[in-house]
Design a protein that fits this description.
Length: about 240
Amino acid sequence: MPFWKFIVNQATETEPESVELRIEGDIVDDDEAWLYEWFGMPATTPNAFKEELSQYKGKDITVWIDSYGGSVFAAAGIYNALKEHNGKITVKIDSKAMSAASVIAMAGDEVLMSPMAVMMIHNPLTTAYGNMHDLRKVADILDTIKESIVNAYALKTGRSRNKISQLMDDETWMSANVAVKEGFADSILYQDQPLDVANMSQFTFNRLAVVNSANQSIRHAVELINKQNKQDEKERLLLELDLI
């Protein structure tokens, strides 16, 4: 079962029909979807998402996002699908749009954030194995991926590429006010007047304290598999003892 949901609000005498979309959980590649489905963990994948989105051609869509992020390639597929959609896309961030989820948010014609929401952008991360030539090549690939992410941020914010690159280097955390100030969001939900800007980036955040949610979920799934295997082995041994 996918962890996004399209909600169609029927038209009334005063309001036209509207469509809401909620994106929750990790942003993962299609070939990892089965693992999340198996354990009932929230995730969003691009291909199934695009197929369902195609059913709402020509309709304005409000996209609610609450995600720690995940795969930048999966996020690119979802971003492209929303940008290609024939209708206005209004993004609303009700809790968090971090890492790859912030890239998806950039697809909005209008981006609104809850006053309690946060957005985080950073350089792309990966794990690597190999000799010095392999690792240098991986670094080059990460540079290329970063350039593609900067494209999405620059298109939305109008900021210079150097400015955005620096924000990513600094692993920048933004409150709703800061996101509006920097151009990553257009306004703040539930407010008629803007609050004084308090930049969350003034505080020190430890990258090690923020674990990549997708990797964490995969590790959790592996732990569950290993636990189940151990349990199956224990039951098998007990059965053999009963038969002796």
